[in-house]
């Protein structure tokens, strides 16, 4: 016993329990063996900030979605890769609409929940690993704030190159991001400043997820402004063609593959 969490599939365990609460399938988490225990994702930041977020929304049907999720789905066309499919809430709706969708995730437990809920085409791994499978797509979805997966200045070129390697001519990326800089909370503005001092983007979060006795490794997750995203996309095979910020500070960024067919 070290007091440190055991490394494990935090997201998968969390989703399994949220799914059990949602459906009554499988053992539900209980307090004292009797009362329902809420399923909360614990998010630790490297300045010591700890936040909790209820996991139930990862299973939400479209009636509970935010407006930008609907607009993202409406813009989806062709063979689609849902990057970080989670509990499959987006993929299920695309399937119903007849859109050929593949769900990609690094969490075996998330894929189990997605499969159980009816998502038919699921792949375990990262975008980099998926390139070798030879499958190609017209739309890439990074929803549920998953623009964060581009991590920061170091990872962004390789991440966007992997998406380009998976892309058909004319492909698009639809990514949900959040502009972090509207806040006046000194806990956050101080963190942004500390990040800049150590050569990182202000909203380049260094996080660890916890659930019960499990934790993830520390990882970078980028929360950036549209201007910072434009800077990160410059020099890659993609062009930032649209930023829909009707629900600011949340936005949907559309990237298009540059070059023949991508104009
Ligand atoms: C914030 S959740 C979003 C889930 C889903 N897109 C939604 O909107 O409900 C992030 C998901 O991305 C997955 N994930 C994390 N890192 C990943 C990576 N490098 N490649 C693919 N999926 C990843 C997690 O396991 C989790 O299912």
From TrEMBL:
InterPro entries xrefs: Methyltransf_25, SAM-dependent_MTases_sf
Pfam family for this entry, one: Methyltransf_25
Annotated signal peptide: none
Domain Methyltransferase as annotated: residue spans: 81-170
Species annotation: Micromonospora antibiotica
Keywords annotated in UniProt: Methyltransferase, Transferase
Keyword Protein biosynthesis: no
This protein's name: Methyltransferase domain-containing protein
One BP annotation, GO: methylation
């Amino acid at each position: 016993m070290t007091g440190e969490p055991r490394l494990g599939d935090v997201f998968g365990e969390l989703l399994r329990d949220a799914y059990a609460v949602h459906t009554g399938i499988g053992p539900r988490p209980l307090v004292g063996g009797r009362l329902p225990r809420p399923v909360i994702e614990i998010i630790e930041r490297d300045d010591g900030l700890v936040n909790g977020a209820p996991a139930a929304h990862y299973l939400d049907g479209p009636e509970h979605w935010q407006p930008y999720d609907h607009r993202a789905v409406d813009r989806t066309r062709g063979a689609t890769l849902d990057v970080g499919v989670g509990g499959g809430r987006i993929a299920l709706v695309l399937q119903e609409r007849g859109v050929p969708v593949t769900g990609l995730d690094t969490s075996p437990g998330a894929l189990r929940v997605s499969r159980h809920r009816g998502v038919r085409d699921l792949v375990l791994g990262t975008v980099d690993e998926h390139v070798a499978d030879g499958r190609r797509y017209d739309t890439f979805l990074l929803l549920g704030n998953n623009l964060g997966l581009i991590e920061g200045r170091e990872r962004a070129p390789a991440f966007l190159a992997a998406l380009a390697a998976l892309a058909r001519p004319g492909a698009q990326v639809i990514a949900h991001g959040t502009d972090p800089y509207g806040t006046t909370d000194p806990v956050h503005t101080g963190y942004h400043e500390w990040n800049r001092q150590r050569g990182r983007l202000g909203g380049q979060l260094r996080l660890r997820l916890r659930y019960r006795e499990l934790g993830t490794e520390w990882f970078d997750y980028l929360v950036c402004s549209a201007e910072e995203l434009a800077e990160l996309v410059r020099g890659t095979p993609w062009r930032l063609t649209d930023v829909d910020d009707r629900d600011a500070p949340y936005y949907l960024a559309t990237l298009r593959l540059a070059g023949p067919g991508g104009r």
